[in-house]
């Protein structure tokens, strides 16, 4: 093994630890994708992490790297509740990539359509079934109709991270930030697979919100639609607990 490969593997191990923190998860995932194949070993081990968020992010990253070496670990993850879906999607992404010369080329082909979408086109692509969209001056409001008969509005925004990378972000309000429930919500951040609860101060007072963000370069519409639905369900459940109403 070359000195560079050893260095990359060591860095990958450190980056996997950063997947547990929603504040550092996006940057760590981006760097793991840049490392590519040398990161597969650490990501495969991360599939067994007791932190569901780490395991979920590891499975997603392995699918985007597109390495045959990840298949065995992902197949084992199919039996783990909470990440079986993303593990299956990762395997589906790897299968057609097996004949490609490298994970990096596979990522480029897979992510091209997502990178080329404007905000308007993305909002339109996400619509269908139980998801509809309304355009406004600041972006798009996505309305998700839930199986319970309730619905949740989620804002779709195009942002940039601290390094200037394009992000696709979701944001939705859950209701007034009750002190006891806010403390509970913060603890939930340690175990939910994606998205995060946060506190926002508005003209109406403090609000408990849920946010989530993805790198536009690597995100795909199918992934974003499922994430949008899951975020809406989690936010609506917290809103119901906070207010009992269906306001967002």
Structural notes for this entry:
By secondary structure, the protein is of the alpha+beta class. Helix content is 49%, strand content 21%. Strand 3 and strand 4 (166-176) form a beta hairpin. Helix 1 packs parallel to helix 3 and helix 3 runs antiparallel to helix 4 (52-65). The longest helix is centred in the last third of the chain and has 23 residues, at 221-243. The chain is globular, with a radius of gyration of 18 Å. The model is unreliable at 96-114 (pLDDT under 50).
One letter per element, helices H and strands E, the order comes to HHHHHHHHEEEEHEEH
State the strand order across the main sheet: 1-2-3-4-6-5
CATH level-two architecture of the largest domain: 2-Layer Sandwich
Question: For the residues shown, what is the average pLDDT?
Answer: 79
Tell me how many strands there are: 6
Low-confidence stretches: 96-114
CATH domain class of the largest domain? Alpha Beta
Q: What is the oligomer described by this structure?
A: single chain
What fold name goes in the CATH topology slot of the largest domain? Yope Regulator, Chain: A
Q: What's the story with the biggest beta sheet?
A: 6 strands, antiparallel
Q: Count the DSSP helices.
A: 10
The best one-word shape is globular
User: In angstroms, what separates the terminal alpha carbons?
Assistant: 54 Å
Helix content: 40-55%
Q: Radius of gyration, rounded?
A: 18 Å
Number of separate structural domains: 2
Strand content: 15-25%
């Amino acid at each position: 093994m070359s000195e560079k490969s050893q260095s990359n593997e060591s860095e990958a191990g450190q980056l996997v630890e950063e997947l547990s923190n929603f504040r550092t998860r996006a940057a760590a995932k981006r760097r793991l994708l840049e490392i590519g194949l040398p990161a597969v070993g650490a990501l495969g081990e991360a599939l067994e992490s007791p932190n569901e968020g780490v395991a979920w992010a590891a499975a997603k990253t392995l699918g985007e790297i597109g390495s045959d070496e990840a298949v065995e670990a992902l197949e084992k993850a199919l039996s783990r509740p909470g990440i079986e879906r993303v593990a299956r999607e990762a395997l589906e992404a790897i299968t057609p990539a097996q004949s490609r010369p490298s994970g990096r080329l596979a990522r480029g082909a897979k992510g091209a359509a997502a990178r080329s979408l404007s905000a308007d086109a993305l909002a339109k692509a996400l619509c269908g079934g139980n998801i509809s969209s309304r355009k406004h001056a600041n972006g798009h409001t996505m309305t998700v109709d839930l199986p319970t008969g309730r619905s949740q509005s989620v804002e779709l925004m195009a942002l940039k991270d601290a390094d200037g990378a394009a992000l696709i972000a979701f944001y939705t309000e859950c209701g007034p930030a009750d002190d006891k429930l806010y403390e509970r919500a913060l603890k939930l951040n340690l175990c939910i697979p994606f998205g995060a609860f946060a506190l926002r101060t508005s003209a109406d007072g403090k609000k408990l919100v849920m946010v989530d963000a993805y790198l536009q370069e690597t995100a795909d519409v199918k992934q974003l639609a499922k994430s949008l639905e899951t975020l809406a369900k989690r936010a609506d459940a917290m809103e119901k607990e906070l207010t009992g109403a269906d306001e967002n």
